[in-house]
Amino acid sequence: MKNYSFFPHSDGVDIFTEQSSVKMRFLFQPIYQPKTNATVYYEVLSQVESQSGDQYSSEDFFANIDNEFIKLLSICQLNYVANLEALAAPVSINIPLSTLLDAHFIQQLVDFSCLPYAIEITMIDTNCESSLLQKHIKQLKEAGIMIWLDDYHRDLAEANDTLGVIPWDFIKIDKTFLHHYQDIDSLRALAFTLSPFAEMGLIFEGIETSFENDLIAGVKALAQGYYFSFPKRWDDIENKTQKSSNEKLIQNQTHHTQWDITLQQAEHDETQSHCFH
Predict the structure, then answer these.
(1) What global pTM score does this model have?
(2) Please, how many CA atoms are within 13 Å of residue 21, restricted to the half-sphere of its CB?
(3) How many CA atoms lie within 13 A of 127 on its CB side?
(4) Which residues contact 187 (CB under 8 A, 6 or more apart)?
(5) What are 243-253's pLDDT values in tens digits?
(6) What pLDDT does residue 272 have?
(7) Pairing of strands 168-173, 38-50
């Protein structure tokens, strides 16, 4: 087992091993309601950089790390979220299913149950019918932690084997689905098929156009993708939210000022009217 050292910084964590070090910058991508554009959740993602600032491919990086690294990273992500001044919506973090066999890790996850968050299972790499796994999933669910299936594709036998075995709250549909099926009947058929296995519904990934957004709105599912927002630093999201709030406040103040002027004018007109009587 490798030894890792994690040191928090303003955007994420620095991670050191005996051979190398990387900077993990935490980014947040909204999962939203396509009819209203309201953000319902944020997925926490990691941008991987060298200490000199060069970016790595996240897919390549995470394909070559072990579960111990992922477990430590997920706890760092939850720590980071716990220290945010204002969490606008629940978050989700990504881990493979096999990490849930670790009783110590389960307890660490439960210790963060004061946070509203979900676990996205990115890889089905262990027997989903394992009694130990089922016990730990029950423990997480009882603590109020949601369990989602990530990147579902109907041709993935491992994912299909979990349906009805793991009590998924949401099932996230892999972005490749919309590359092949862009009609409302296909989406409704998929939603009908999966609805018994996803207590809270479906989340479609890879939304990149207004047409796709409207399709998802037609099946009453949630959505995620570049159409709505790229992954962003929390400070950027918070600043945008604050700017939007300030603009609404200014609009409200302007509205009230106009209302006050109208009210004053009405009172003046009424006084003048009494004078003529």
Answers:
(1) 0.85
(2) 11
(3) 4
(4) 181, 204, 215, 216, 218, 219, 221
(5) 554 454 455 55
(6) 46
(7) unpaired
